[in-house]
Amino acid sequence: MFKFAIQNMENQDPAVVDAIKESGESTLEKAKTKAKTKFDQFVDVSLNIAVTGKTGSGKSSFVNALRGLEDEDDRAAPTGVTETTMEPTMYEHPEMPNVKIWDLPGIGSPNFKAKKYLNDVNFNTYDFFIILNSERFMENDIMLAKEIRKRKKRFYFVRSKIDNDMSSEKKKKGFDEQKVLSIIREDCQKNLKELGDPKVFLISSCDLEEYDFESLQNTLEDELPEHKKYALLQAWPVCSAASLEKKINMFKRMTWAASLVSAGVAVVPVPGLSAACDVGMVVLFLTRCYYAFGLDERSLTRLSEKVNKPHLKDLAKSKFVTAIREKALTRLQASAALAAISTVEYFLSLLPGVGSAAAAGISFATTQYLLREGVNDLADTARIIRKEAGLASVH
């Protein structure tokens, strides 16, 4: 049956044939169904991350870091030396509204009851828990982890404010960063023995490029279901060259699905067929790519300030970056406004030999080419910016 279907493809648009093969399905109809499922998961699947731990451990700063925000930014979670979170507070990711990060109340009370706490914070809401502490993990952290495990969800221990520890230790004679990190890690794990030696991730919310932030991302990727992994990779801050490449590869792998969904391909396509193009899907896909790669103005400002190179923002002027920036809004929920036909016409005018074709007449091949060119253009721009920032090496 599969062989017969492939033989029939010889009469079809070669670009459609390629997309069917990439889908791993035997017919266009099956490929379209799979593409719709994949694309819906890519854009809409929710991811709810719970951040909990001892009062004063830096939960709110960590929530802000996951959202790509500074503590002083608009819409940042409030931070302070006293407990600022009295009930579960949800913060949407600024550009990926399907990703929600929950700042949960502190667990430092002497009367802490893990079971009651999880019921009070609506346990079933969250995909996994991050248990944060800026010192060694204590009895309450262990009690909470045991209760989460009993209810069959995952938890991850994060030791925060590592930058503060390093600042203190650097003043001492014979300072050795790796040795200090090993001591901190071993001290944390010593108290967690009864849980079976879980990993402890050492993190600075002020500098995600350092320490174990990338390792935490890799662990979450390995343990999340595939559809949840899409949401994580899109929203997770770019914390290394390797993490950027993962994002790039994910978007490249998704172009076949976005192409089949956005181009109205007939069930039995004929050579030269033109199809209507869902403009909103094309623009949404490339705009997601733009934000995921850290090419938006807020991300570039943060990076340029961190490495003290104000000119980095001037490097984000490639043809696709410019096209998206002219139409991009601060919220992807306003994707209908992004779907102006003029935007796709502008994209098309950038492609050799296409000109300003009317959006309603875009062929499947052109849709696919547009998406691939867009991802490559945005990826190359992101790589150039990281290289100029001195952050180009893949760990």
UniProtKB/TrEMBL annotation:
Single GO molecular function: hydrolase activity
Presence of keyword GTP-binding: yes
A Pfam cross-reference name: IIGP
Organism: Cyprinus carpio (Common carp)
Location of the IRG-type G domain: 45-223
Protein name: IRG-type G domain-containing protein
Family named by the database record: Belongs to the TRAFAC class dynamin-like GTPase superfamily. IRG family.
PANTHER family per the UniProt record, alphabetical: INTERFERON-INDUCIBLE GTPASE (PTHR32341), INTERFERON-INDUCIBLE GTPASE 5 (PTHR32341:SF10)
Record InterPro entries: G_IRG_dom, Immunity-related_GTPase-like, IRG, P-loop_NTPase
